[in-house]
# Entry
Amino acid sequence: MLKIKPATETIFESPLNKSNGCWNYKKITIPLEFKQYQSEISYIPGFNRSSLDKIIDQLKNIHIDKETLKQRGLLPEVKFVLSHLLLQQENLITPFKSLKVSHLYQAKELDSEISASVIKVKIGRSQPDEELGHIISCLKNNSHLKIRLDANQNLNLEKLQYFWNQLKDFHHQIDYFEEPFKGYSDYKNLKIPHAFDENLSHALTEKNKILVIKPSLFGDCYELIKLKETNHRVVLSHCYETNYLKPFLSYLASFWPDEYHGLN
# Structure
């Protein structure tokens, strides 16, 4: 039987801003134990789409086997925990020692010298010209750098095109724009390199997409691993899990060893 341990709360020094205007100040961590195996729920109100009460209700009655993973209505957070425990039982998890990671910045935090090879920069939070000033200055001084611009659905086509045009001298350094738009139909025929996070479920139905995946929100890690056999490009990201889950996340990242993952 799965043992659900008391939850703990972590207060963020800086709130997480979502595209729907929700500010998240805390994370709830629920440690879980099954036999000698452990997992956890990392839950951020307003960030996770599932209700925490429903997650706990499903965990209370869960059977730890692969058949349960096939049940309809099972929440992604519960599928993540279940597949994590099953992979531990199968003794398949080995940490990936050659993990490559990207580093996260706000545009205003960019330094003149950055040693990292790949960074992700949050944009669409202040005036475009202000953010572009920081980005252009950074790229001029760091010719080795690849940059990912994460808009969290805060742009429209006009604003995205403006960013792209202003950065015309640095297109070779731009990896992609992550989730510039909210509506999936807005991406049709878009030629500017882009990646999907919030619109992941739509992008999975197509081919040759760049997918930014948070495993604990994706759900079934067996299905996640199967994406290795597709023509999608996969970048893993985190949900502020504790250090306990880092070896498991690095194991999942090992299926895309040449990628820079958002697991720093």
